[in-house]
Amino acid sequence: ADWASTTQGAYVIYENNANYLEGYGKLYNWFAVNDPRGLCPQGWSVPSDDDWTDLVDYLVDQGFPNSNVVNGAGNALKSCRQSNSPMGGACNTSTHPYWSSHNTHFGFDEFGFSALPGGRRSDIGAFSLITYYGYWWSSSELSATEARNRYMRHLRGDMFLQNNNKQSGLSVRCFRNIE
After folding, report:
1. What is the mean pLDDT of residues 107-119?
2. pTM of the model as a whole
3. Which residues contact 20 (CB under 8 A, 6 or more apart)?
4. Which of these, 82, 118, 117, lies nearest to 103 by C-alpha position?
5. Which ranges of the chain would DSSP assign to H, the alpha helix?
6. DSSP letter, residue 80
């Protein structure tokens, strides 16, 4: 009930299980993203929706289309850690953190982004989708109740744009400020 009603910055560890913290980090509501104290270290910031778009456009320009193909932009950003990874070695794991198995859409981490699927917490407090989906807030607000985010799925090769309720708990990825 507290999670669903707060308009203050808040975070949680998936299912309140400390074993998930090191691999997946925390899930934040959007009010934490918008907190003037900031979530990111000096010289870094929570990316805007335009920053996420610039990243995806860069990946497309590098030959990784933002479409559901093997060499898609999402797969290029995903960590290679996956259950039954066709890449083998240390990439083939069922020890957290990891992506759930998929024969075609596996991460190959072309750019060192190492995206992991931390799942989400809904605006009413339910946890879901760890190992299947990775969600990341943007700093872009849409309305009094919604803000933009990006997400990736274990069974797709692309990155998606989405609007989410500000009470939802999603991951945050800080981008370095370059001037």
Report:
1. 97
2. 0.95
3. 13, 14, 96, 97, 118, 130
4. 82
5. 2-5, 21-24, 30-33, 49-61, 73-77
6. S
